[in-house]
C-alpha cells in the first residue's frame, strides 16, 4: 500500500511516500519539500530513495503560487517517467496528514470526513498558526487525489489519555467546560513512536512498560507514558510551557505577564511575542540555536554558560517529576535534534540521579546518535536510550492501521 505523508505548513509542504507492507514494515520511496509557497523564489526539492540506500536528488525553482500548485508539482515529480517512483497518482492509496490540534475531539488517527474538517476548524483558535495550513493540505489533497483516502493524524491525540488530575488547571472549572482551557500537549506523534520503540529496545511489552520520552529540539517537551498511554506531558494548552526552549520561556510565574504589561505598557500581542519568540535560550544569552550557545560558552560567555545550566536543570526537574509520577520507570528516551545530537545536554539533564536508578555511561553517551543507542551504564536500573524519532513513518503506520 502506497501512502503519501503530508505535513502542510503556511508556506511549505513536506512529504514522504511510503510503500507499506504492514503496520510494522514500510519503505521510503521518495521524499522532499516544497517551500516558499506564494513567493517568487519557490523551491521544490525531491529525493528518490534507491534500493541501495542512496538518494537521487532534484531541485526545481518554479513559482508555486499556492498549495494546490505545490501539491500538483509534487505529484508530477513522484510520477515522472524517468525520476519518479509511481507510474500513476492512482497508485497512492492514501494521504496521511499531520494536524496540530484536535482539542478533545479525537484521540486516534481518523479518516477525514466533514465532521473531522469541522473539528479542525473549531480548533483554529487553539492552533492559529498550524491548523489552517494543515487544513489547506487536506482540502487540496482531497481535490487532487480524489481516489485516495485522506487520514488526519493529530499531534495532540496521543496525550488524550491523560487523567483529569494531569490535564486540568486550577482555574474556574467553567473555563474548561466552556472554553476548552486544559493541558493538551504536543509532539504527540513523536512521543508515541519513541515510546513504542523504546519499550521494544528495553525488552518490555509495550502494554506493561513505563517510559519517559524527552523530545528535545528548538521546541521541547517530555511525556510520561504508562503501559503505552500518555499520563502526563510538559506542554499545555499551547506549546509554550514546560521545558526551556530555543525562544520559548517554558514554565514561568503567570503573574509575570501582568507585571510586565503594567510596568512596560506592553500589549497582549507584544507579550505573546515576548514569551514565545524572544525568550528561552535567546532571551538568556542571545542565541536560540544550542550549537551557538555551546560555542559561546566555550568562548567564555557567562550568560551562555548560564543558559546551558538553566536548560539542564529544568530538564532534570521534569525527569524527577515523571519518575515520581510513574513510580516505576523501565527506560528514558532522548529524541529530536538536541536529544539525538547533544551528549552534554543528555548527560547534564540526568547528572547526579544515581539515587533514582539513573546512571549514564559517559563513553556510550559520547557523540551524536543516528540509530537507537543505549547510553546508560550496566549498573543503571533505568535504561537510558537515544532513539531517533520518525514522525513521518509513524503517520504512515497509523494511516495504514486506519485503512486496515
TrEMBL record:
What species is this protein from? Oceanidesulfovibrio marinus
Protein name (Swiss-Prot/TrEMBL): Acetate kinase
Top-level class of the enzyme under EC nomenclature = transferase
**Cofactor(s) for this UniProt protein:** Mg(2+); Mn(2+)
Cofactor details (free text): Mg(2+). Can also accept Mn(2+).
Site description Transition state stabilizer, residues in chain: 187, 248
> Which pathway does the record list?
Metabolic intermediate biosynthesis; acetyl-CoA biosynthesis; acetyl-CoA from acetate: step 1/2
Question: Source organism lineage?
Answer: Bacteria, Pseudomonadati, Thermodesulfobacteriota, Desulfovibrionia, Desulfovibrionales
Q: Which residues bind Mg(2+)?
A: 7, 391
Q: Which InterPro entries match?
A: Ac/propionate_kinase, Aliphatic_acid_kin_short-chain, Aliphatic_acid_kinase_CS, ATPase_NBD
Protein family per UniProt: Belongs to the acetokinase family.
